[in-house]
Write a structure and sequence with these properties.
- This protein is of the alpha+beta class.
- It folds into 2 domains: about 70 residues; about 150 residues, Umud Fragment, subunit A (Ribbon).
- It is about 30% helix and about 30% strand.
- The protein is built from 5 helices and 14 strands.
- The strands form 3 sheets. Strands 1, 2, 3, 4, 10, 11, 12 and 13 form an 8-stranded antiparallel sheet that branches. The chain has a 3-stranded antiparallel sheet with strand order 6-5-9, with no helix packed on it. It has a 3-stranded mixed sheet with strand order 7-8-14, with no helix packed on it.
- Helix 1 packs antiparallel against helix 2 and helix 2 runs antiparallel to helix 3.
- It is elongated, with a radius of gyration of 23 Å.
Length: about 230
């Protein structure tokens, strides 16, 4: 039983899931000690196993403290979202986010093919995606950062979709802000909700703190392309 709990602890990365694993670990620890004391009428074996158990537990706690606490930091290692995000920028991340926080424009961390990435959400479940070369239109419009969010609408007369599809439930389409130098959903496709493990809430550059939530897209305030 302890080995099963430990294995699940290593594999899981959902925010609520970590708390359930944490308490499962504690309950399992209490149960094992009680069973050994009751069976052998001695505390020696229970104490030895408890020591090994605690070593494993605190080892996992140390490696995954961000997920247990709920907040942690990370650093940008690429210019895929330049100039919004530069190499060396630090993030404060929320690991206990809920689905309601996954807005268009939100900067998220996710797993893809065993690697970790941080990109910005552009398409959410049930959105229509149309890719025209490197441009991606979401429900007939694309939004991009140029000092502020701007919008360009799909031109039926002059544009043809190279790829077109609808996102399914729990699927998201992510892009880097630097579209000329970003490995994102244009290449590896959509990502699943279960692979998103953090939402960035603050960014730090040269002692300047920026609220990452300010980049959430308000479609009523988007400026037209070229303005």
């Amino acid at each position: 039983m302890p080995l099963i709990i430990l294995a699940v602890f290593r594999l899981g990365h959902s925010e609520l899931y970590w708390y359930l694993i944490f308490f499962s670990y504690i309950l399992c620890f209490i149960y094992v000690n009680y069973s050994l004391v009751k069976k052998y009428k001695t505390n020696k074996i229970a104490n030895l196993l408890s020591f090994c158990f605690l070593v494993l537990f605190f080892s996992e706690l140390r490696q995954n403290s961000d997920l247990i606490i709920g907040y942690g930091s990370s650093q940008a290692y690429s210019n895929s979202s330049f100039p919004t995000i530069e190499i060396g920028d630090m993030f404060l991340n929320d690991y206990w986010f809920v689905d309601e926080q996954l807005f268009a424009g939100q900067f998220v961390g996710f797993f893809n093919d065993g690697a970790k990435y941080q990109k910005r959400i552009h398409g959410s479940p049930y959105d229509n995606i149309c890719q025209v070369k490197n441009k991606v239109f979401i429900n007939g419009r694309r939004f991009y950062l140029s000092g502020k969010w701007r919008v360009e609408y799909f031109d039926d007369n002059n544009m043809i979709c190279d790829k077109a599809f609808d996102l399914k439930r729990y699927e998201y389409f992510v892009l880097g802000d630097n579209l000329k130098n970003s490995y994102d959903s244009r290449y590896f496709g959509m990502i699943n909700r279960r692979d998103i493990f953090l939402v960035s809430v603050l960014a730090l550059r040269n002692n300047e703190i920026r609220d990452m939530n300010k980049y959430i897209v308000n479609f009523d305030e988007l400026s037209e392309y070229g303005e």
